[in-house]
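Quick one:
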Amino acid sequence: MSKERILVTSALPYANGPIHLGHLSGAYLPADIFVRYHRSKGSDIIYVCGSDEHGVPITITADKENVAPKVIIDRFHEANKKSFERFGMSFDIYSRTSLPVHHKTARTFFSNFFDAGLLKEKKSFHFYDEKVKMFLPDRYVEGTCPKCGYEEARSDECEKCGALYDPSELVNPKSKISGDTPILKETSHWYFPLGDFQKRLEQYINENNKKFNWKENVLQYCRGWFKDGLKDRAVTRDLDWGIKVPLENAEGKVIYVWFEAVLGYISATKDLFNNNGDEEGWRNYWQNPDTRYIAFIGKDNTVFHTIIFPAMLLAWNDNNSDKYILPENVPANEFLNFEGKKFSKSRGWGIDVSEFLDLFPADSLRYTLASNLPENKDTDFYWKEFQAKNNSELADILGNFINRTFTFAHKHFDGEVPYAGNYSELDNLMINELKSYPRKVGSLIESYKIKDAVLEMMNLARAANKYFNDSKPWETLKTDKEKCAVCINLSLQTIYTLAFIFEPVTPFISEKLLKMLNVVSRVNWFESGNLNLQPGHKLNKPEILFNKIEDDKIEAQINKLGKTENGESEMELIDYEDFSRIDLRIARIINAEIIPKSDKLLKIQVETDKETRQIVAGIAKHYSPDELKGRKIIIVSNLKPAKLFGHESNGMLLAVETDNGDLKVIEPDVNASIGSKVK
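Output:
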C-alpha cells in the first residue's frame, strides 16, 4: 500500500518585520502540528514556506534606513527563519522569493498567460502620491468604504465587509506614506480575467466543501466575493523593486506581488528538490493528481488562496499538458489579539517571537497558542493565561504525572520497566484509554480541530493522574508489590503514549521524554497507544521538564505593554470630533461603600446639578469609603451604563496614576459648581 502523499504550505511571511504571536496562530503552528502528526503517521508529506520579499513596504523601509531593499529582506529573512527554528517549525524548506528559481517561475507563468492571450493591457486610474512621486499600492491607500462606511478600508477592497470597488469610489482617500490626499492618475497595466473563472471557482469550492468540509468562515468570505462578482485584476505595478515584467514595452513595471507571491510555494518546492539534486522531483507534489494539497493561512489571505491562486492554476491547466493540482482545503484561521487589542509594534502592544523565546520555553508557548487557536473566531493571548497553562496544566498535570512515575520507577524498581502480571479492571480501563487516544487525537488533527486535539492530549494526562491516584502505588508497594509494579508499568507505557501524541504540539518536551524513556526507534503514531515498553527495559535519569513561571516575570511583561522602544507610552491619536462627544461634568460624592467579594471596586453615589447617580469605580485599594465622601470629582457623564459585579454604573470618575502605581482622584477647583461642564 502506497503512502498518502501530502503537500502543505503556509502563507509566506513578509520580510519587512519580525514574526509575532498572531502570525504563529494564523498560518504556522496549525500547519506544523498537522505536518508533524502526518510524519508520525507515516505519510509522504512535505512542508514548504519562505519569505515574501517584493513590494512597496520593503522599499519604504529601505528608504527610511537609506539602504538597498536587499539589506532589508536579508535581515528579516534570516531573523524570521531563526525565530521559526527556535519555535520548533519543521519546514522542509524555508525559501525566499528573491531567488532566481522564483523569478523564473513567476516570469514563466506571466509569459504563458500573455502568450495564451489571457492578459490584456488596459489604461486605468490609480492613486498617485504627488509628494513622494509614486503610484500607491492598495494597502498604502486608506479611506472610508463606500459600501459599509468602515474608515480603514483599502483603495479597492474593504477588509471589514469584503466589498470590492473601483478606487475612485473610496471616500476620503489618504496616502499612508505621506498622509496627503492622493490623486487618481492614468497608467497602463496588464490584467488577469478573474471574472472568467468565477463559475469554475464556485464549482471547485462547492465540490471540495462537500468532500473535505471547508471551514464556514472561509466559505462565507468566498461567497462575499462571488456575490459582488469577480473582476479583472491587474498583474503589474509601477515599481522598481520586484520581478521585472518580461515584455519589451514594460519599462518600470514589475509583476504585482499578489500574482507572484503565491507562486512562491511552487518555486520553494523546486528549490527544495534542486538542493537535493532532483530537478524534476517537485512535479510529483504539484502535478500529481494523487497528491493532497493543504494551504494554511490567516483569514486576511483567504481570497488569494481560495480564489486567485486556484484561478491562476486553472488558467495554466487550460493551456498546458503539465497540470497543477488545486488546494484540497484552505483552513484559514481568524486573528489572535494581544491582551484585548490588535498587535501593534509602533504602540508597543505585543511581543515578537524572538523576544518571547528569550524569556520563556518554546513548548509552553506552542501549547498555549495551540489550546487557544482562533479557528472560528478571533481569540486573545493573555499573559496570565499563558502562566496558568504552563503552571496548572503542563507542570501540575502532565509534569506531575511524569515526575511521580519516574521517581517511583527509579526508587523502587531499579530504574527499569517492571513486569506487569495480572491486570485489574482499573488497569484494563487504562489500557483501553491508551489504545483509543492516538486515533481520537489524530482524527481531530485531520479535521483541523487543533484546539480539541490539544484538549484531548491533556485529558489523557488527567486520566493518567487519576489512574495513578486510584491505584495508590505508595500503599500497594507495602502490601502487594506485584500490583504496584503493574501501576508503574502502565504509567510508563502511558508516558510513552503521551510523548507521541504531544509531539506535534510540544516537540522539544517529547524529545526529552523519549530520551528519559531510553527509546531510540519510534513506532507509528497509531501503534503508540500499545504497550510498547518491555519489562526490564532500562530507563534513563529523569530531568525537569517544566519550570513554574513566577508572578513577577509575568507582571514585568504586562507592565511593558503600551511602551515604545524608548520606554515611553505611545498614544493613539483621535480626532477632535471623537473627544468632543465626551461630556465631562463636576460632581460631588455623597456616599461610598465597598462591594462585597471585590477587593478593587467601590459603589459610589454622586450628585450633579440635576440628579443623583451611581458609579462603580476601581479605586478600593487607594481610598476608603469615608475618605471619598464630600469630595468634588470630575465624571464622564454620558457613558453608556454598564454592570460590574452585578451593580449598575452610570458614568466614570477621572483619576491619575502616579509613578508608584497609586490612583489619585482628580479634584476640580473648590469654586467649581456642581454640574458644570469641563472643557
